[in-house]
Amino acid sequence: MKSATSTLANAAYGVVRRRILRGQLSLGQAVSRRKLAAELGMSFLPVSEALLRLEFEGLLESRPRAGTRVRIPSPDDVRGHYLVRETLETQAARLFAEVASRGDRLSLQKLAARLDALSRLPNRAVYLSLHHQFHQRIAESARCPVLSAAIEQTCALASTWFCVFPRPVSVRAPRRHQDLAKALANDTPARAAAAMRRHVRYSRQEALNRLQPYFEIRKASGRTFSRSARRIVS
């Protein structure tokens, strides 16, 4: 029975996580356990387990008598997230410059060119998927599975923030990922790490600028939020 519940919980977790990362569930949007359980043909128990797991990962938040919603970050949340990300990804960049194969380096530069081209298009879903691949490719090529897993988790959280952006993120820096990939492929480990640090800090400022309206919503909602927000979507 426990195994069956865990399997169902994993399935519900996957469904909700994908919807959040694809922007089908927006920041602040309410998630109804009852409706989700009915939609997936499950009881409350596996659905509740799935949502608790997503809360632990920082994708959802719940408050007594108010319900569950996609988590709206505070400015301090964003700064803290990017501080951790900077630490992880600068180390990945340093290791990439040290141990990546010639094939890894060429592959990353090709991926960067595709990513920068997509950054100017309005379809954010494809861009987000490739952006995730780009940073994972760096981590995987660094040959450190634990570091790669940690970076995957930080990229997933940042994806929920990218989904709110009404226009391409990299308009002011159309070769941003190509320049980074070139530094990682050709420079010393120290210079590769410095290039990644600049890249992450640029992203942090972009996120703070674009999330400003949501910070105001979070501030206005205080300690509670209403279940009247839009419900979970298919």
| Rg | 19 Å
Q: What's the helical proportion of residues? A: 55-70%
Largest sheet: 3 strands, antiparallel
The beta-strand count equals: 3
Strand content: under 5%
What does this 3D model show about the protein?
There is one protein chain. It is globular, with a radius of gyration of 19 Å. It has a three-stranded antiparallel beta sheet with strand order 1-3-2. Mean pLDDT is 86; it is low at 226-234. It starts with a helix and ends in a 13-residue tail after the last helix. The protein has ten helices and three strands; from the N terminus they run αβααββααααααα. The protein is mostly helical. It has helices at 2-21, 33-40, 44-56, 75-99, 102-118, 124-141, 145-162, 176-186, 189-210, 212-221; strands at 30-31, 60-63, 67-70. Strand 2 (60-63) and strand 3 (67-70) form a beta hairpin. Helices cover 69% and strands 4% of the residues.
Keywords:
single chain; about 230 residues; mainly alpha; 3 strands; about 70% helix; about 5% strand; globular; disordered C terminus
Write the layout of secondary structure elements.
Layout: H1 2-21, E1 30-31, H2 33-40, H3 44-56, E2 60-63, E3 67-70, H4 75-99, H5 102-118, H6 124-141, H7 145-162, H8 176-186, H9 189-210, H10 212-221
Antiparallel strand pairs: 1-3, 2-3
